[in-house]
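Retro notes, item 3 of 5
We never archived the inputs for the fe (ii) ion complex last cycle. Fixing that now. Sequence and ligand:
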Amino acid sequence: MENQEQLDQFQAYVDQEMKVEAKDWMPEKYRNTLIRQIAQHAHSEVVGMLPEANWVTRAPSLKRKAILLAKIQDEGGHGLYLYSACETLGVDRDTLIDELHDGTAKYSSIFNYPTLNWADIGAVGWLVDGAAIVNQVSLQRTSYGPYSRAMIRICKEESFHQRQGYVIMMEMAKGTPAQKAMAQDALNRWWWPSLMMFGPSDKDSLHSQQNMAWKIKRHSNDELRQKFVDMTVPQTEYLGLTLPDPDLKWNAERGHYDFGEINWDEFWQVVRGNGKCNKERIAARQKAHDEGAWVREAALAYAAKKRNKKGAA
Ligand SMILES: [Fe+2]
Ligand SMILES: [Fe+2]
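Structure as it came back at the time:
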């Protein structure tokens, strides 16, 4: 049982900006929140590979194909780091994967939108990885040590992801009128879902306060969303494209851009499984998992054989 003294001690420890490590005592609610959050993050990394994998065979040049492949491979690596970080909290990977497949666990809703043309790969790298960076830079200072360290490594690769997306957008925005129109179309479709990536508004976010107190979260959803908007507007202007928001304007008093109302109905619809690609994404993950069973079995058999040999020697 947890008593108040333990909880107070834990809070005092976290307040000193000390990292909580796997073997340290922690409140059950802290542990469970982190398991849910890190698992959701890990699932997002691997499900996020799917909309991009859609374009590997159709990338317009060998160079673009190689860059996209490297980027997708990074995301697989991020998933692995994060599953490992999650396992340090006492949950095993099989359970996590089962929860993804049976729908108990969530992943970022943005990956339930389709990638329809090549400019979508640009928009995804620029906006989706861009939004992920804003969130992950903040999480580098999260109080749980293994998660914080995973974020530091992951952020180094994310800036390359964002950059490769922006370069695709630059080339298309400065290309033929048809290419520029494709870039604008991709931006129109990805802008609002990117803003939704930061999650519900602070006033509607259930766990926010406790998570801020425990320093799991370092900035609120609305603060991070504002940061992303402020960062992205000048990048859009440089491309000569327009953000699909008539209410977007600079607010000199606040020193930030004001922007329009997010369609939260759409957000909750997609979270509840009614997005364009929810079923397709989970089916693809399940298929990859089933088809990879023999690899996992072989790896385990090989490890057992090595262990036995060592034991005999
Ligand atoms: Fe990633
Ligand atoms: Fe990424």
